[in-house]
């Protein structure tokens, strides 16, 4: 084979190889392993979420139940007793809602007449939200709020009995209220189960008209309460940061003593390690116009639940301010509300345009690991009667009783000076004055009143 023929064959082979390699390169499809996108957002929760259909029943609870007899009023704030009553009422078929205008005398008969049950909530509750708890005919539930549920236990020989939903503003002077009907047999069965127990076990209450528009009920005699101490378990601040911030990668941290501040383009979170509280702000969500109360409650309950923030089961709905789009949930211990000047006992939320714009809360839970609450009991203490508390307020300078909006027994929460992991709970009288809850120093004032007798 001569040289020229060899070159021709070699060139042909090289061209064929080139064509093959080019074709292979064009048609080659490599096998890549699937790699998770590390930048994709991961939904972080602080604790376990609650089932959505249980949110309202676990957070919106009455905190006082009264039974009006002909000559006296009996009542309780025992949550277990109230839960039993509400569970029974929750089986009723409540129907035929209507709006009625009551004059002052009719309103008094409805709310304070003989053989009536009065169930009192901390603040107004939207009927549409509470329809998830009571067996209400959703097609007829009005857009209205109430803070008292009145049940007429008198059997008037009819097939049904009346229940009344009274808003906070309804008291003396007449008001427009909503009424509905309940099967009389259900009411009679309820009365037979509870009335004897109510009469024998409940405490007697006194009625006091704070103003022409507000009547409250206070224990008639001195009552004994228990002081408690509980350990605390801290939630993870890192979990709150990852759950709340929109952009978790561009967060800057600055520290000043026991206060840490986390800042991103969209959000700001301040953590106070002295009191174990945090405050989260989403400025672009701020809204001026008021939202309906039903939306405020639904949105705030869901917002906390979305990141598993109901870590302590002892928080309950406590107040709502539609003008400020603000809802507050308060810690309860032994059926009584807890108060703390540093915000350690409440979850406060302000709703903005499409979500919560301000969110403040503690980031600890109380350790109720002991099945016996008495194991955490420290001491017993008798608090003054309702009439004594009224006398103390009347005797206090710079207090206008017309500006007192409510009076309750609650717990004062303080950090234990000997062990920062412990919190002390001291029973005390509190009064709501111009929107703020203030502790009444009953020991000093009772000594003064006794000295004047």
TrEMBL record:
Signal peptide: none annotated. Residues 4-453 form the Regulatory protein YycH domain. CDD domains: YycH_N (cd15787). Pfam families: YycH. This is Regulatory protein YycH domain-containing protein. It comes from Rossellomorea marisflavi.
């Amino acid at each position: 084979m001569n040289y020229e023929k060899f070159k021709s064959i070699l060139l042909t082979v090289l061209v064929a190889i080139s064509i093959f390699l080019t074709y292979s390169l064009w048609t080659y499809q490599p096998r890549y392993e699937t790699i998770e996108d590390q930048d994709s957002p991961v939904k972080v929760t602080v604790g376990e979420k609650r089932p959505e259909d249980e949110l309202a029943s676990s957070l919106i609870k009455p905190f006082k139940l009264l039974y009006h007899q002909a000559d006296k009023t009996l009542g309780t704030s025992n949550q277990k007793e109230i839960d039993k009553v509400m569970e029974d009422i929750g089986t009723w078929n409540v129907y035929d809602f209507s709006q009625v205008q009551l004059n002052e005398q009719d309103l008094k008969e409805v709310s304070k007449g003989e053989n009536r049950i009065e169930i009192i909530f901390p603040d107004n509750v939207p009927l549409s939200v509470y329809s998830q708890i009571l067996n209400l005919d959703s097609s007829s539930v009005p857009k209205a709020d109430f803070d008292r549920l009145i049940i007429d236990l008198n059997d008037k020989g009819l097939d049904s009995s009346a229940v009344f939903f009274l808003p906070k503003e309804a008291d003396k002077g007449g008001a427009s209220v909503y009424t509905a009907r309940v099967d009389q047999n259900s009411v009679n069965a309820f009365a037979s189960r509870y009335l004897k127990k109510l009469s024998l076990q409940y405490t007697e209450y006194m009625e006091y008209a704070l103003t022409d528009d507000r009547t409250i009920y206070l224990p008639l005699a001195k009552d004994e309460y228990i002081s408690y101490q509980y350990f605390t378990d801290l939630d993870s601040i890192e979990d709150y940061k990852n759950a709340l911030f929109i952009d978790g990668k561009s967060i800057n941290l600055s520290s000043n003593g026991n206060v840490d501040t986390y800042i991103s383009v969209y959000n700001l979170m301040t953590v106070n390690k002295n009191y174990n509280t945090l405050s989260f702000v989403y400025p672009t969500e701020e809204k001026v116009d008021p939202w309906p109360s039903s939306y405020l409650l639904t949105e705030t309950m869901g917002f906390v639940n979305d990141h598993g923030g109901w870590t302590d089961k002892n928080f309950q709905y406590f107040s709502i301010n539609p003008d400020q789009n603000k809802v507050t949930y308060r810690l309860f211990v032994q059926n009584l509300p807890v108060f703390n000047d540093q915000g350690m006992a409440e979850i406060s939320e302000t709703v903005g345009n499409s979500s919560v714009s301000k969110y403040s809360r503690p980031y600890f839970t109380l350790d109720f690991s002991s099945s016996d609450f008495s194991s955490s009991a420290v001491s017993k203490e008798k608090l003054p009667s309702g009439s004594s508390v009224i006398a103390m307020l009347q005797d206090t300078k710079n207090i206008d009783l017309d500006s007192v909006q409510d009076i309750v027994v609650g717990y004062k929460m303080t950090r234990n000076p000997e062990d920062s992991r412990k919190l002390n709970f001291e029973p005390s009288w509190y009064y709501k004055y111009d929107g703020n809850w203030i502790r009444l120093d009953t020991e000093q004032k009772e000594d003064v009143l006794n000295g004047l007798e």
